[in-house]
């Protein structure tokens, strides 16, 4: 069981590495990775000329299952929004509190040693916290 959990952690980290590289290539500055507030976590917090991005990364190995981005449901969206509010209340986050906040999803799928990256900018707008 631990081997499977260790493999999933490695896969998740590899996906986040790919996502960070992708965002940097798109002109983003990576502010935080795996930022935590209690039991809440944001995979990547980045900044570009449009504002601050709170990014959920979903990583999978190639399979016939649903695309990874489909696993970012209402509960995950709500938890990410709550974490974003916590971040914006910190000393690091306060300077961005009046700017545009975006909630993105990046799906990374590995197949035959290659990563396929799909970015869903402004994937959702949290309405209720």
Short description:
With 129 residues, the protein is α+β, with helices and mostly antiparallel strands. It has one domain (2-124): Trna Endonuclease, Chain: A, domain 1 (3-Layer(aba) Sandwich), CATH 3.40.1350. The chain has two helices and five strands, in the order αβββαββ.
Any chance you could write out the topology, listing elements then pairs?
Layout: H1 2-25, E1 29-37, E2 40-48, E3 51-61, H2 74-88, E4 101-111, E5 114-124
Parallel strand pairs: 3-4
Antiparallel strand pairs: 1-2, 2-3, 4-5
| Overall shape | globular
CATH topology: Trna Endonuclease, Chain: A, domain 1
DSSP summary: helix tally: 2
Percent strand equals 35-45%
Amount of helix: 25-40%
Q: Which strands sit side by side, in order, in the main sheet?
A: 1-2-3-4-5
CATH classification class: Alpha Beta
What order do the helices and strands follow?
HEEEHEE
Evaluate the radius of gyration: 15 Å
* Major β-sheet annotation: 5 strands, mixed
């Amino acid at each position: 069981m631990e081997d499977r959990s260790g493999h999933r952690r490695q896969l998740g980290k590899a996906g986040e590495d790919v996502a960070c590289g992708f965002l940097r290539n798109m002109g983003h500055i990576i502010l935080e990775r795996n930022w935590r507030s209690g039991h809440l976590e944001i995979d990547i917090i980045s900044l570009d000329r449009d504002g601050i991005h709170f990014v959920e990364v979903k990583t999978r190995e190639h399979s016939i299952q649903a695309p990874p981005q489909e696993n970012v449901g209402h509960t995950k969206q709500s938890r990410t929004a709550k974490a974003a509010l916590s971040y914006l209340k910190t000393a690091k986050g306060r300077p961005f509190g009046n700017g545009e906040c975006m909630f993105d999803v990046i799906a990374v799928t590995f197949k035959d040693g290659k990563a396929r990256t799909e970015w869903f900018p402004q994937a959702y707008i949290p309405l209720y916290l």
